[in-house]
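Why should sequence recovery work at all? Because a backbone constrains its sequence more than one might expect. Tight turns favour small or flexible residues, buried strands favour hydrophobic ones, and helices have their own preferences. The token representation captures these environments compactly. In the example below, the structure is given first.
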């Protein structure tokens, strides 16, 4: 990981647009280069910043620090980025064997798409690539948790066939409650 050339084949969204969006034939899903990790960190914190109001300042500070640790997530996860016209427009971390997922499961975390990029299929393309990778590894399911305030992410997850799984609910940071979803493959 950490090298754009390590993810093969490069996923390209088909030449059809999700409802209400532009064509995404120019969107590439890949691993970030090492020199892009700070950009991914900033993109992630910026994408989640609107939810800071739901937390105490101390909780937001700790949460922002955690989600900005892209290099740390790469030790047991796989970071994917969405690139359009040379700009990073989204990211997602996939844990093929993460401690929170059961045997045969892959876990997705930190789906980050800045508000101005939402509704254009970026998150969907990242999710579809992560599901594709999990299926290719023979996983039985993909799990993800989403705070209730993140309605766009929740709507995306359910539109992809994920179903609510309350046994995955948890509190990743003080004041942050996440609801679990699973997709059986």
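From this structural description, the recovered sequence reads:
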């Amino acid at each position: 990981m950490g090298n754009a050339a390590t993810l093969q084949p490069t996923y390209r969204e088909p030449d059809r647009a999700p409802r209400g969006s532009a064509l995404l034939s120019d969107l590439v899903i890949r691993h970030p280069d090492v020199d892009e990790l700070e950009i991914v960190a900033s993109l992630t914190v910026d994408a989640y910043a609107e939810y800071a109001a739901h937390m105490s300042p101390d909780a937001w500070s700790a949460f922002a620090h955690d989600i900005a640790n892209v290099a740390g997530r790469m030790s047991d996860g796989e970071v994917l980025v969405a690139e359009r016209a040379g700009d990073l427009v989204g990211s997602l971390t996939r844990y093929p064997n993460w401690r929170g997922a059961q045997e045969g499961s892959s876990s997705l975390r930190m789906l980050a798409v800045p508000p101005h990029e939402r509704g254009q299929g970026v998150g969907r393309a990242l999710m579809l690539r992560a599901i594709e990778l999990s299926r290719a590894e023979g996983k039985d399911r993909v799990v993800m948790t989403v705070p209730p305030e993140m309605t766009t992410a929740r709507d995306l997850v359910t539109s992809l066939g994920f179903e609510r799984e309350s046994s995955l609910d948890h509190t990743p940071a003080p004041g942050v409650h996440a609801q679990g979803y699973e997709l059986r493959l």
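A few observations help interpret the result. Residues 155 and 162 are 10 Å apart (CA to CA).
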